[in-house]
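Input C-alpha cells:
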C-alpha cells in the first residue's frame, strides 16, 4: 500500500475504514503503542531494556 499502488486502488484503505470503523481505531492504537509509548531501541542495544514510557 502506498505510492506503488495503481491509482485505481487508492481508495481501498479509505473504503475499508468506512466499512469497518474499528479497523481505524485499531490502527491508531497500534501506531500509538508502537511509536509513542515504546522507547526507541538502537541496533546493538539490549532489547530487554525496552520499557513503556508515560
Amino acid at each position: 500500500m502506498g505510492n506503488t499502488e495503481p491509482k485505481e486502488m487508492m481508495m481501498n484503505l479509505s473504503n475499508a475504514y468506512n466499512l469497518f470503523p474499528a479497523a481505524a481505531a485499531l490502527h491508531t492504537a497500534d501506531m500509538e503503542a508502537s511509536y509513542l509509548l515504546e522507547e526507541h531501541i538502537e541496533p546493538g542495544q539490549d532489547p530487554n531494556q525496552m520499557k513503556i514510557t508515560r
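The chain has a mean pLDDT of 76. The chain is about 45% helix and 0% strand.
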